[in-house]
Amino acid sequence: MDGDPPSDAAPRTSALTRHWPTVQPWVTLVCRIALAGILAFAAYTKLPPALSVQSVEAYQLFSPGVAELIGYTLPLIEFALALLLLIGLATRYVGGATALLMLVFIAGIVSAWARGLAIDCGCFGSGGPVAEGETAYGLDILRDIGFIALAGIVMIWPRSPLALDRVFGLYR
């Protein structure tokens, strides 16, 4: 046929496919730094730890002792993940851990929404009860799905510049 390429012609590839090996490390670097900033800010806004404990208690999922343990350790976990992402150490695993953390956050938000609780998620600052129409559960979930997408990029394509992983011979 007139419009068909000759059978011996090489298959065409998109510009992204051709340039991906060059672009990918920089995409991952941007995702790493963005996630590190998000996690560090989230942890910072949960200080002093009493604010974080208040946020966890608002979900009404745990006993007071467990809520206190989670409230005190969550900012530390977020700071640790942020630091590891920033320096690029164990990038694939930290990306996976970040994605799992976001899934846990989504599950908590869905649980609160399904039970009719009117709370602020506490993701960036103090959470707790809010007026009936002031919840933003759908937006909170969409935001966390976006963070999962960033973490997924880091997890699937961990190779990036300015990463300690390179010093240790990982993801060259």
From TrEMBL:
Keywords: Membrane, Transmembrane, Transmembrane helix
Any one of the GO CC terms: membrane
InterPro entries registered for this protein in UniProt: Methylamine_util_MauE
Residue ranges annotated for the Methylamine utilisation protein MauE domain, each copy included: 25-155
GO process terms (BP): methylamine metabolic process
Superkingdom, natural source: Bacteria
Keyword Repressor part of the UniProt annotation: no
Transmembrane segment boundaries: 26-45, 66-87, 93-114
Protein name in the entry: DoxX family protein
Classification lineage: Bacteria, Bacillati, Actinomycetota, Actinomycetes, Streptosporangiales
